Amino acid sequence: MTSDDAHCPGPPRAEPRLGVWENEGGLLATPLRLPAVDDAAGQAPRPWSATVALAGLPAEGAIRLVVRDVTLCIARSQGAVYALLDECSHGRVALSAGDVAGGLVECWLHGSCFDLATGIPTGPPATTPVPVYPVRIVDGVVEVALP
């Protein structure tokens, strides 16, 4: 996916809502559900798990890893690193096999695009976000906090 041929409908909205999608010209049949807020206040800290060397990630792309029984899509886009569940919420296929560009990952099966930072879909057919996980880089290694 490049910016020239991307069909994802623009940048994600600050406030996702049910409404008309420009590329479909109609209303979504299913309301958009937002991901759970990760509020660490008052909770035990999540353990950090080392995943991959930062040098092992493509500059604009994704890889699939299983960490503590969670299948992750570790992606880098526009210089930032992200971790999300490696399963499209619409087609139940690996997001890591899709194209990454502009802070989005596009599902290879039906073309749903997800914001890498929030997991929120930017247009149909997906209407349900995918879980995202906190990421940090320590000594050149990408670490992910899993529940």
Give an account of the 3D structure.
The chain has strands spanning 20-21, 26-27, 48-53, 61-67, 70-77, 80-85, 99-101, 104-106, 113-115, 132-133, 135-138, 141-145. With 147 residues, it is mostly beta strands. The strands form 4 sheets. Strands 4-5-6-10 form a 4-stranded antiparallel sheet, with no helix packed on it. The protein has a 3-stranded antiparallel sheet with strand order 3-12-11, with no helix packed on it. It has a 3-stranded antiparallel sheet with strand order 7-8-9, with no helix packed on it. The termini are far apart. Mean pLDDT is 80; it is low at 1-6 and 11-39.
Order of helices and strands: EEEEEEEEEEEE
Tell me the strand percentage band. 25-35%
Q: Averaging pLDDT over every residue, what do you get?
A: 80
Write down how many β-strands occur, each being a DSSP E stretch of 2 or more residues.
12
Give me the oligomer status. single chain
